[in-house]
Amino acid sequence: MKLLLHTCCAPCLVYPLERLKEKFYVTAFFYNPNIHGFIEYRNRLNSVKDFSLKESLDVICPDYLPEEFFDNVDTKVMPQRCRLCWSLRLEKAAVFARENGYDYFSTTLLVSPYQSQEIIKEVAQEISDRLKVKFYYEDFRFGFKKSHDFARANNMYMQKYCGCIFSEMDRFKKKKKNA
Questions:
Q1: What strand order describes the sheet that includes 58-60?
Q2: How many CB atoms are located within 10 Å of the residue 146 CB?
Q3: Start-end of H helices in 76-164
């Protein structure tokens, strides 16, 4: 069985890939128009490509079009902003999966303790039902530390924020508050 794995970054790919390879032929799908700015996007993409080469993992990389994020995510308010962003990225993955003969789609977002597992699952299931492509759910958070320890040990690029300009701004606001 084939699974298309929406991939947000290399560190978050490590553990889900390890688990999913036991059950599926996995292809990574790096679609993240939310990532701000271009250098950040390129660093994350290159890290995914480097890791994928070592793992003999195919990677699909649609064009980087940040306007798709800004056209679809019309609020800075969380969790609505995140829900819209996840929906945008997971729908693109589900459409690609359906059109290219994948049995399932899933996402590396499910490894992060910082993301709402419940909302991601809900969004993905809505997309799955509407597009008639199966969503594979597994709570990968157990492997978050393992993934990040591996990433550090292997000098993978590790970002400091979720990806969008709003999360980057939030990061600096928190730093300023704590200073």
A1: 58-60, 25-29, 2-6, 104-107, 134-135
A2: 14
A3: 80-99, 117-131, 144-153
* Domain ranges (residues) in the chain: 2-178
Per-residue pLDDT tens for 54-67? Answer: 999 999 999 999 99
Pick the CATH number of 2-178 from 3.40.50.620, 1.20.1560.10, 1.10.3210.10, 3.40.190.10: 3.40.50.620
Distance CA 32, CA 116 (A): 18
Residue 162 phi, psi dihedral angles, 5° rounding: -55, -45
State yes or no: cis peptide before 79, omega within 30 of 0.
yes
The pTM is what? 0.93
Three-state DSSP state, 82: helix
d(CA 42, CA 36): 10
